[in-house]
Amino acid sequence: MAGKFFDEWTIGDTLTHDIRRTVTETDNLLFTTMTHNPQPLHLDVEAAKASEFGQILVNGTFTFSLMVGLSVGDTTLGTLVANLGYDKLVMPKPVFIGDTLRATSEVIALKESKSRPNAGIVTFLHKAINQRDEIVCQCERSALIKRKD
User: Residue limits of the MaoC-like domain (predicted)?
Assistant: First the structure.
C-alpha cells in the first residue's frame, strides 16, 4: 500500500500496520555488529544470563528502526520528501529474541511548509507493541510529505 499525501491526512488518523515481525537472533547479532555496538547484553549470552533480564536483550536501535520500517508502507512510501526528526523516543519494555512486534501510527500534528508549497509536515506517533500487548518502543516522527496536487 502506498503512503498518503500531506493533504490526505487528518489529525487523529490511526493505523494498525499489517506487517508483523518476529525478532531473531540473527537480526540482533547482525544489527549490533553492523553498528559497532559492543554491549555484552546484546552479544554475550553468559553476561546477559547474569543480568536482571536473564537473557539476550535485543538492541534498542534495532527495535526503533523496525518500528519505523513497519510503518513506512502505510504512511510515507512514495510520498516522503524527507524525515525531519524523531522526538520523545522511549523504550518502556525490553525486547527479547523471539518477540513478535507490530506497529501503530497516529497523526498528531499537521503543519503547512513555509519553504515548500508542494509539501507539508506530518507528525506521527509510532508505537511498537509485542505479542503481550506491551508497548516496547514509541516516538514522534516528523516527516515532510508531498502534496497530492
Answer: 10-122
